[in-house]
Amino acid sequence: MRKQQKIGYALVGLCVLLTVGGSVGLTLNGDVEGIPTPNVPDRTFFADEPLPENGLSTFISARLTLTWDRNDIYVVIVDENEKQRCESTSPILSNPGTSNACTAYDPDVLALGQNGEEGLSWDIISGTHYAGIGKADQPLPAGTEVNMAYEVNLRAGFASYFLFALLGVAGFAYSRVE
After folding, report:
1. CATH assignment at residue 142
2. Do the domain assignments include residue 107?
3. Which of 17, 18, 98, 157 is the S-S candidate for 61 at Cβ 3.0 to 4.6 Å?
């Protein structure tokens, strides 16, 4: 076998490995901590720490799945600006009867989950995002703890598959060079 054929077939093999690895993906697990207990009905309270980010969204697709241990609360995902706006507004000044601001039905909510067993799935977009919790009817008793865990499934995105295909075609073409 000639040197060009070895290199070309190695590139084609690398392309196949990257494609399979990108399809299988990688899963990361973690916990969301520091969320205050909702003590105002129809009001969302946010975690101090942001959710994992996806800075390479062009090349990597990331799907976040949140689960929590209570079925009497809702969970939302918002961007950093919405979190800051909600935290700067006093719960006393917000009127849930006339406004959806900082509730589960806020128009700026990116994702909403109302069942802890099913959880919440969301395709991560670029930017800083936070999880928030709330309770629709009655506030939770003081000291109530809400345990929330996340799972992020990373896979190759469309641009990655395009680059893998280019690598395979280049390897095949190089193996044919005389």
Report:
1. 2.60.120
2. yes
3. 157
Strands (E) across the chain are located at 26-32, 45-46, 60-68, 74-79, 111-113, 120-123, 129-134, 148-156
Structural domain contains residue 99:
yes
pLDDT per position as a tens digit, 33-44: 777 777 777 788
Q: Is residue 48 part of a domain?
A: yes
Q: How far apart are CA 137 and CA 112, in angstroms?
A: 17
Torsion of CA 39, 36, 45, 129, to 10 degrees: -170
Q: Write out the residue range of the structural domain in which residue 44 sits.
A: 26-156
Q: Give backbone dihedrals phi and psi of 113, rounded to 5 degrees, phi first.
A: -130, 135
- Residue whose entry in the numeric block shows the structure tokens 């509730």: 103
**Rounded CA separation 134/100 (Å):** 13
pLDDT in tens, 146-169: 888 889 999 999 999 999 999 999
